[in-house]
Amino acid sequence: MNKWLVSACLMAGMMSSGIASANEALAQSKNCLACHAVDKQVVGPSLKAIGAKYAGQAGADAQLAQKIIKGSSGVWGGAPMPPNSVSEADATTLAHWILGLK
Question: Is this prediction's pTM over 0.85?
Answer without folding.
Answer: no
